[in-house]
Amino acid sequence: MRPTLDLDVLRTIVTAQRLGGFSRAAEALGRSQSAISQQLAKLEDQLGTVLFRRQGRQLAPTDAGEALLAYARRILELNDEAVSAVRGAALAGAVRIGLPGDLADPWLAAVLGRFKRAHPEVRIEAVVDRNRVLLERLDTGALDLVVALGSGARPDAERIATIRRVWIGPASGGPVRGRGEPLPLAAFEAPCFFRAAGVEALDRAGIAWRIAFTSASLHGLWAAVEAGLGVTLRTDVGLPRTLRVLDDLPPVPGLEMCLHDAGRPAIPATTRLAEIVRETLAESLPAFGRA
Prior knowledge:
Layout: H1 7-19, H2 22-29, H3 33-47, E1 52-55, E2 58-61, H4 63-87, E3 93-99, H5 101-118, E4 122-128, H6 131-139, E5 145-149, E6 158-170, E7 183-188, H7 193-204, E8 209-215, H8 218-226, E9 232-234, E10 243-246, E11 252-260, H9 268-284
Parallel strand pairs: 3-4, 3-5, 7-8
Antiparallel strand pairs: 1-2, 5-11, 6-9, 6-10, 6-11
Helix pairs in contact: 1-2, 1-4, 4-5, 5-9
């Protein structure tokens, strides 16, 4: 007879992986370290294999542990969707969310899909635009929630993570500039804090540069870099396979990712969407560039 996995234990190991250790998971879940150790021992005994090995002061997943983590996330997602669907069956109305292009490609479909499956009666609208435009629309009441980058100074900012900013070039690996020539840059039209930070880093390093391509969209930027028109400074979240991270240009500090609601009282649908945004990003971020 196959063992039935305990959802409580699965949530513990997923939380530990997300937070970076079982001691942090114990604190977040309100349990003692010994209780979590007993949970792990019981789970390994159930499955008949070692799931975690000590690596320094931490426990790192084995190959079997990595496989279980992947299934655990899916099992918990279905469980949470079922609970939300039953508890939130009465949710109705509309909710509007905005994200920048850097985050929309890898996460928007996942967020909208999870929310719609759990709350089919709620109409959800999504807007993808630049951070400044999204926050302006939030402040005027045209949006209910915004996930933004570099907006931690706002009083309504709820920090989710800090993600890397990296220099990006074509995956072909060819030279991005000729000898003695300024570094060609592909960037959004000013004002753009990626563009400003990249130019500042190059100036500090004494590297000559020129703006070779400007775009109003992220897809336009990716196309220009892939074509070899220039390099760009962005996050490596959702980076196309046709592009690569460049390690030989000046480093730039990471960027805060924040959730905003303009400080307005939230309706139940908005509160639930915010929860799904936090859950989806927290689960996905370890696979991307967390600073």
